[in-house]
TrEMBL record, chain A:
Domain RabBD: from-to ranges: 4-122
Protein name, as recorded: Synaptotagmin like 3
Main location: membrane
CDD domains: FYVE_Slp3 (cd15765)
GO molecular function: neurexin family protein binding; small GTPase binding
Organism: Strix occidentalis caurina (northern spotted owl)
Keywords, alphabetical: Membrane, Repeat
GO cellular component: exocytic vesicle; plasma membrane
One GO term (biological process): exocytosis
UniProtKB/TrEMBL annotation, chain B:
Record-stated family: Belongs to the small GTPase superfamily. Rab family.
Topological relation to the membrane, as annotated: Lipid-anchor
Subcellular location: Cell membrane
Organism: Strigops habroptila (Kakapo)
InterPro entries for this protein: P-loop_NTPase, Rab3, Small_GTP-bd, Small_GTPase, Small_GTPase_Rab
Name of the protein: Ras-related protein Rab-3
Length: 553, 220
């Protein structure tokens, strides 16, 4: 694969021409992603419109879309073929004299067409009859392993994602139906709040679909960008894709909660925080894997105090990445306040990345439906963690704490670009490797932040040379014009080194600075001339951070 | 994201979101059959007889109005030369439509059509649509591949067929429009069958467009 996308056979001018095209393509893609995002947002709003508008109590017989009450004889409403909701005659779109859909189902199809998803779905049809997701996932995993080196790797990953999508859609559909059946029989009385939750549950499912699609999009993006990436290391992109997919595959049992709409939006119950959690953290340097082994908890608070009910599970994020890729959950243990999990999770992450991360381990009670109760959490800044020390790898108990206020919660997507140039000066004696003229442009919401750049050069022997730029305060388009100088690096070393450039928000009070994004430059190829490179500053996720655009230095 | 580079490529091309669908189309075929000229004729309505080999890949964006829908086309022009093959095949995957081109004055380019079609089958997705185009039909004097031969091959491969000329602007627009139409057909077909709930219901006549006027008093 690496050689397949190797651009080294091209002359320099040709490389530039291709890169220019790729850059333009990226622009087009971004516009397209933005458009699709908007479309989906509109669809979501349409979905919620019904539920949100109810000022009166929920009535058993009302249109699922406009909430207009339905009569017994006149305007009785009918059940939509797509979503099985009962809707009034005004909330229907007729496709032909014998077929209609409710407005939401129609819009759903419309979005599917407009977003081009129909094309991807057709692809997924190649794999019919695999109704069992678990089976499919295991299949997927073995697929990944088998094909790790083969040419069709990317394709198979895409297949995997696509089929996943369709499967999830199926789930969402059945959920939809289930929720509705319930609705029709018990009617849910007056609990409008609950009903909202339920509806959002099925909506969540569809949400994930789009998430997966976005992931898929990232993957395919990757493939397309790969010609550029091969400048750094073709092999690397491989592992990245593996990471991305494996974290998805981890979710097995709880696929439907890939993005925690309930727990992340603050829509959850709170209990008195008591108890402790036992886990161990270690970093496997050879494999670049961070391992967290969750043993169990003791003395947890009851999720539902009155009923003395508690079904705990543990959720882990590698902050600041709150995307599904970073999320991991244990199984839910039933009716216990001293659960034993004994589960190990792995994050594939570069060591140099760890210091920018915080491990958030939270304990939750899984109530009926989507009802969740927060039982406490532990946040561990990995920067302070000594992974080389053996005693740090042992199991120990940690006191569960209440949620940190806001601070960590506000997830802002930063995007931007860094302008960098690099040169290698080779005087007779000392060898300098210099970066200069850093410029950061177009990062959203930067005005209030105090920014600085960090750079970390990882040498072939894993030694790291770190540099920091001065802090620039409250500038929308900060220009550091800072020169990072790495002395004593030989061109030979440089060939196997890589440079991480990270942008940070310096925090005033707390000791941990806020990580905004970064890019990684793999240094291979020609070094002895100056080249100006420009690449995107990726958002807060680890994979993206590593992704960036690789450029020749 | 707007950056300094945005203005370089023109705001229009990258930031215009005012369209309904976006299709990706790939033009493939042997070197010097006229793929780039064909694209330039369609996108810019320009033609230069000078031959400049395409480096790897290039694309142009054109928004058209078809079947009451604004459709943004991202048309990829690929290099025909073998040495770029690794780059170009990477782009087959996302393409919804292909224009497979040969030169009617060049037997070799026609003979290669079969290979190109295999390439499509290998690298693209099954539901991608393909048109076979014999370019340079203005050069009747130097023709070596008859229309009939072209048509037969297209039929054999299951593609639709056009003879066109980028130089004299013959059938260029028609080719693209036909391809867009075929993709649209495929799209409504898949929309028809994609929804299992809908397929369970009675299969009505083919949807050609989603913009059916809502009948409010339909109570079936």
């Amino acid at each position: 694969m690496a050689c397949e996308f190797n651009l080294n056979f091209l002359k320099e001018l040709e490389q530039e021409a291709v890169l220019e095209v790729l850059h333009r393509d990226q622009m087009v893609r971004k516009t397209e992603e933005e458009r699709i995002r908007k479309l989906k947002l509109q669809l979501q709003q349409l979905r919620w419109k019904g539920a949100r508008n109810v000022s009166h109590e929920y009535q058993e017989r009302s249109c699922a879309r406009c909430q207009k009450s339905l009569g017994l004889l006149m305007n009785r409403g009918a059940v939509c073929n797509g979503c099985s909701h009962r809707v009034c005659s005004e909330c229907r779109v007729c496709l032909n004299p014998c077929l209609w859909k409710c407005t939401v189902c129609y819009a759903h199809g419309d979005v599917k067409v407009k977003a081009g998803e129909w094309f991807f779905e057709e692809r997924a049809k190649k794999y019919p009859g695999e109704a069992n997701i678990l089976h499919f996932l295991t299949l997927g995993i073995s697929h990944l392993q088998e094909l790790g080196q083969s040419k069709s790797f990317n394709k198979s990953v895409e297949n995997l994602f696509l089929s996943l999508t369709t499967h999830i859609k199926k789930i969402s559909k059945s959920q939809n139906d289930m929720a509705d059946r319930h609705l029709l029989t018990t009617g849910y009385g007056q609990n409008v709040e609950r009903r909202k939750q339920r509806r959002s549950q099925s909506d969540t499912a569809i949400n994930i679909t789009s998430r997966v699609f976005i992931l898929l999009y990232t993957v395919s993006n990757w493939n397309q960008v790969k010609p550029a990436c091969s400048f750094c290391r073709g092999v690397e992109t491989h592992t990245k894709i593996l990471v991305l997919s494996s974290s998805l595959l981890h979710c097995e049992g709880s696929l439907y909660s890939l993005n925690s709409t309930c727990t992340d939006s603050g829509n959850f119950g709170k209990a008195n925080i008591t108890g402790e959690i036992e886990f161990a953290i270690r970093y496997i340097f050879k494999a670049c894997v961070l391992e967290i082994c969750i043993k169990g908890c003791k003395n947890l608070a009851y999720g539902e105090e009155k009923k003395k009910k508690c079904n705990p599970y543990v959720k882990v994020y590698l902050l600041p990445d709150k995307s599904p890729r970073s999320k991991w959950k244990t199984a839910v243990k039933k009716s216990t306040v001293d659960p034993e999990f004994n589960e190990t999770l792995k994050y594939k992450i570069e060591y140099s990345q760890l210091e920018s991360r915080q491990l958030q381990i939270s304990v939750w009670h899984a109530g009926s439906l989507k009802y969740r109760v927060f039982l406490g959490e532990v946040v561990i800044p990995l920067a302070a963690w000594n992974f080389e020390e053996n005693s740090m790898q042992l199991f120990s108990w940690y006191q569960l704490k209440p949620k940190l206020e806001k601070h960590e919660e506000d997830l802002i997507q930063y995007g931007g670009e860094l302008l960098v140039s690099a040169r290698l000066t080779v005087p007779a004696q000392c060898k300098n490797f210099q970066f200069e003229g850093m410029k950061c442009s177009k990062i959203s919401n930067l005005a209030e932040l105090s920014l600085f750049l960090g750079s970390c050069l990882t040498l072939p022997d894993q030694a790291e040379v770190k540099r920091k730029s001065p802090v620039l305060k409250k500038e929308a388009c900060p220009q550091w014009k800072h020169l990072f100088v790495f002395d004593g690096v030989t061109p030979a070393q440089l060939q196997q080194s890589c440079l991480h450039l990270t942008v940070w928000d310096q925090s005033v009070f707390s000791s941990s600075d806020y990580f905004l994004g970064g890019a990684k430059l793999g240094a291979t190829g020609k070094h002895c001339h100056l080249k100006t490179a420009q690449w995107s500053l990726s958002p807060l996720s680890s994979q993206r951070v590593n992704k960036g655009f690789g450029f020749n230095i | 994201m707007a950056s300094a580079t945005d203005s370089r490529y023109g705001q229009k091309e990258s930031s215009d979101q005012n369209f309904d669908y976006m299709f990706k189309i790939l033009i493939i075929g042997n070197s010097s059959v006229g793929k780039t000229s064909f694209l330039f004729r369609y996108a810019d309505d320009s033609f230069t007889p000078a031959f400049v080999s395409t480096v790897g890949i290039d694309f142009k964006v054109k928004t058209i109005y078809r079947n009451d829908k604004r459709i943004k086309l991202q048309i990829w022009d690929t290099a025909g030369q073998e040495r770029y093959r690794t780059i170009t095949t990477a782009y087959y995957r996302g393409a919804m439509g292909f224009i497979l081109m040969y030169d009617i004055t060049n037997e070799e380019s026609f003979n290669a059509v079969q290979d190109w079609s295999t390439q499509i089958k290998t690298y693209s997705w099954d539901n991608a649509q393909v048109l076979l185009v014999g370019n340079k039909c203005d050069m009747e004097d130097e023709r070596v591949v008859s229309s009939e031969k072209g048509r037969q091959l297209a039929e054999h491969l299951g593609f639709e067929f056009f003879e066109a000329s980028a130089k004299d602007n013959i059938n260029v627009k028609q080719t693209f429009e036909r391809l867009v139409d075929i993709i649209c057909e495929k799209m409504s077909e898949s929309l028809d069958t994609a929804d299992p709930a809908v397929t369970g219901a009675k299969q009505g006549p083919q949807l050609t467009d989603q913009q059916a006027p809502p009948h409010q008093d339909c109570a079936c």
